[in-house]
Design brief:
The protein is mainly alpha-helical and 602 residues long. Helix content is 69%, strand content 2%. It is globular and about 65 Å long.
Amino acid sequence: MFGMVAEIRQQFPVPDNHFSATGICIRYINNKPFTLSTTISPLYPTRSADEMDEGVSQLVHGSPNMCRLNCIPPLPPLKTRWIGLNLYIAAAVAASTGSLFGYSVGFVGGLLVLPSFLGHFHLDVLPAAELARAQSLVVSSWIVGAFFGVPTGIPICSRYGRKACLIFSAALYVLGTVLQVINAGSALWLFEVGRFLNGYGVGAGTLVSPIYISEIATPSNRGILMSSFQVVIQGSAVIGFWGAYAANAAIADTSDLQWQIPVAIQLFPGIILLLGTFYIKETPQYLATLDNLELVEDSLCWFRGLPPTDVAMKREAFEISLTVLSGVRRQAIHKTHFLREALSAPIRKRLVVGVGLFVVQNMSGMVALNYYVAVIFLKAGFKSVSASLFLTGIFGFVKLVAALLFMFLCVRIYGNRFWLLWGTGVCAVSMFVLGYCTATMSDPSDGGSIPSVVRATFCILSVYVYAVAFGVSSGPIPWNVCSEIFPSYINAQCCAVTTCTQWLFQVVVAAITPLLLASIGPMTFVFYGLCNVLGMAFYYFCVPETRGVPLGKEMSRVFGHEDFKYEVYDGVVEEVEDADDDETPLLGSERKRRRSSIAIVV
């Protein structure tokens, strides 16, 4: 067999090109991927070992009937390839799910204190305890809906495609908004149902949007495209906050338009997303699961702006198909389910990283600041509610600037680990300073060493510095990393686990923060500072660098798993070899024959 390989090499000399095709894989020849191709469907070989021996022999003697050998040039560097405008349009449409998220978070705080809203639902006559409970239900119904929307998106993403999940997200969001706006009576429960459906759509959107963007992006521009999701979230949150602020200032308290207009604005991003999904195409990774290479090539042509005859595009489509189908076939051979896959070493390590990123993100204190920053400014000496709200609005602008800074600058100059470590360190220091300043704010001079005005200034600056540091580290990077580290065939399920973690810990932090403030006061911020220190340790020891790493086998190497089960070209051979007797229809003797016939390493 080694002589045959040498003869093949002499008969088909391609010193600078790759041998590649579909079917049974023969690993590497002279460090080049080499594949024998049967006329059978890709990655589903049915020929016996003897037939493969005969096929190699016939190939050497020039017979085209049994096998064929395709010579495909290597993929040119991505920086030399022109990326089509459609890629950025599709990424913008998918990132608009962030506007559903951001605006809902940004406007609800101002909505709950609008006099017209309180009067319409008769909340202004409730005792303080009942009012707080009613307002809490309005907020929590949205978060609960988002939490349950994430797992609902799993089967839609996996079975019907990423586009279908985007449509599902937009449709539910629009329906929930309509229920909130058309509420003619004073039944708060109908408004809460609308908020629940609204959040349900947001949950599904936060699952599918990062997946969609990561699957259509190239390694060189994946960082900036993924960062657009966070930019849209922060920008929409700013619009939501100032929209409610403007409605309060410009519209009479007796008019229902004061609260209905901020609510109705939610329709715009929902409708834009719904209409945009009819223009964009499905991702190549999902189309690869359909075992149709032509669909994958057509999708890549659209995203890359390349002609159907482009050789580089064909090679990229071929590699995507092999990567995805090898994972699908592995599940079929081993009869695996998601839990077993999740507990396997290659996936378990990635899940630990993904879940840990979102735990640190929420325990770093940003959720607490989002809800209580206005109270912090009041305690800092700004007794006017309007002044406190104005500073809160500036806080939103700072977060938006940080997101833009990360998108256009940070992702280009250093890797994810650098920003995670340095950003989280600055967040920890900011929280410690904030805790000290708020703890001593009531004292006139803290022994005469630090004037109160200086402490108030440091209090405000620490909040804004924290916002910038968080915005270039733990804010956007968890979304980016989790969307790119998992294999395509279980990407939706794994991202659902990490996204559910994000929503779960949002609920946890929102619930424990008022209890911490009531029990330990300013030490709450010291607690979150310590959480940032622990987060730095997690980032340093557990999170690898993924910036610029291509999806697939290269990402597997980053996590220390170079076993051939996840390799593009030799996954088929190793999957058959590694299968247990009770997990594959092949008999032991047949498995040995096939192993000796096709597992060639030169």
